[in-house]
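Quick one: structure tokens for this chain, please?
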Amino acid sequence: MSLLLLWVPSLFGADGEKVFETYCWGCHHQTAVAFGPPFTEIAKKRSAEEIEAMITDPEAVSKVFGYKRNAMPAFKLNQEELDAITRYILSYKNAKVQ
């Protein structure tokens, strides 16, 4: 039984919160403004495709969005991590802002 319990979590893929803690927490918070916008704001304004594009190529996406500057670095996440952090960000769509 314990072997099954160790194996089952891997079926769910990357954990969005862990990806957040690894790459995002220095500049973003879930519901409060930090250096970058909170996930609540991002989730309300952006689609999954826009979020993924901003993570992988923020310089190009910033130009498309009409931003004059971009401070976000590009991240080289695997597809599992990218999907996980995108789902995690979008999970804040209806969260209250602090």
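Residues 79-90 form the longest helix (12 residues).
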